[in-house]
User: What shape does this take?
Amino acid sequence: MLSLLGVLFDGLAYGALLFLISVGLSVTLGLMGFINLSHGVFAMLGGYLLVTLMQYAGLSFVACLPLAFVASALLSLALERALYRPLYRSSHLKQVLLTVGIIFVAIACATYFWGPGQQRVALPDALRGQISAAGVDLSWYRLFLVAAGAIITLALVFGLERTRFGARVRASVDAHRTAEAMGIHVDRVFQITFAIGSGLAGLGGALGVNVLGLDPYFALKYLAYFLLVVVVGGPGSIMGTLLAALLLGIADTTAKYYVPEVGPFVIYLAMVVLLLAFPHGLLGRGKAL
Amino acid sequence: MRGVAAERLTPSVMPHWQALRRRERWRPAEIAFWLGLAAVFFVFPKHLVFASQVLITGLFAMSLDLILGYAGIVTLGHAAFFGLGAYSAGLLAKYGVHEPLAGLLAAAATAGLGGYLSSFLVLRGGDLARLMITLGIGLLLFELANQATALTGGVDGLQGVEIGPIFGLFHFDFLGKVAYLYVLAVSFTLFVLVRALMMSPYGLSLRGIRDNPRRAVAIGVPIRARLTNIYTFAAMIAGVAGALLAQTTQFVALDVLSFQRSADLLIIVIIGGTATLYGGFIGAALFLIAQDRLANLSPEYWLFWLGILLIITTLFLDAGVMGGLLRIETLVRRRFGIR
Assistant: This one.
């Protein structure tokens, strides 16, 4: 039995992963209003790539992470060009159908190439084992996840608040048309943001193989979680997404440890209640969904 | 304007009352469609169980089309009402009431109540919020049925559903003959009701809300009330479809509530064509026949082709099969000068 602090810490690590995967979705949703249910597919690709590279190419865990990022980003660029772009201005129903279709194809491909079972990753020695701090046993792996989440959050906030590109992204989210009129190439901004976001999802998927699990139905299983994080956080808001992801991670983990019978309900109930209480997200900018 | 010249007028230029009257009339193709369904009974006596499944799915799809095609509400959790109906009919039959029609009424009442209560949550937000709330309610009900094993049997499904004869006269048989006629009769009755409703000013006002909510408000359509009651009505029909499945198979599987069922249904409606009344039935037939042929080879491949189909449909085919058929009909009519 883990102590309360240990459970909270596990929830934190879980929340960090949810954040990594969902942040891209949040920005693209805020930017284009495009409902992309297939975002989990990029996380799935990252995870499977990591498993495969480690098993067959003999690469190390850490060396695979950037590759997972790059591969997911490249795939997203291809998909964006070929499939998503024609539907930016069309109805939400079409976007839902298209992206559900992509999930189905991804499930079929993953089953074909990797089989229906759960995948596991052998962690490097440096990340195994535990460390005792203040009477709590913390696993190195989860510490690593939390640290990775913190570093990426800082990098994102810095990139968004302090760089020219970040300013363009913010302008495009807040006032799409005005940004275009000011000469910002919103489509290009979107493409790059989309690629970065999908890359982060791939990275999150790769980091989380042992925490979230990885099987062909991954994208569907966690769909509600990603959407919840984004909507509760408020689309387009990084800090909102972070807050929502951590809250959700901690709530879900705590519920699963202490009241396993009702564990699965907590998340869905939270989803409905939070949506009703905060229709614009916790830190949303008052945009209607 | 009357006389010879009126013959050549297109429907858009005709007086409105005439155009509306023409829309209401049963076309020969529609009559042929239902006669064809009756003929299935004699032509394919060995496939009646499968034919019943198609009809039930078609009815379920029609109920989704009411809110998706006519009212424009995007939902990912319509299976919730199908499942509510299936479980209430199943439980009623298990615990004493074996009369099938009573089961249908109970299912309609439960699903309708569920639809009415959830409509207040669903209709609050925009498309994304609706999507998530319907998804959340669907998943919640699925988990509930999964955990409440004492009541629903959980993953093993609800067993011991015994259905008595219809009106105390017609017993369900193993070949599914009575079941098929029963499903056909219920579907047809509900279809006539829905058709009349959608042809009425009420149905027109729903389309108005979908196409231009602001103008609908301006001409005095009570949007909230309209959407609430069409959502409830659609939930009731979905509940009846679920009850029909429970009664004809004498079993309720947990997957009546699954996400996959909601997603499949969405696909069926889209393939068939939205806001066409018949799209749901045609989509259900195509979908289930394709599934029957392909899924037996390998479920994974089925999902692959399903995904590809979905992507192609959304990118290139706008109005589904019914849209294509209607376009052909217009071409033929124009070619031969038939009105």
The CA atoms of residues 103 and 279 of chain A lie 27 Å apart. Residues 4-32 of chain A form the longest helix (29 residues). The longest strand of chain A covers residues 130-133.
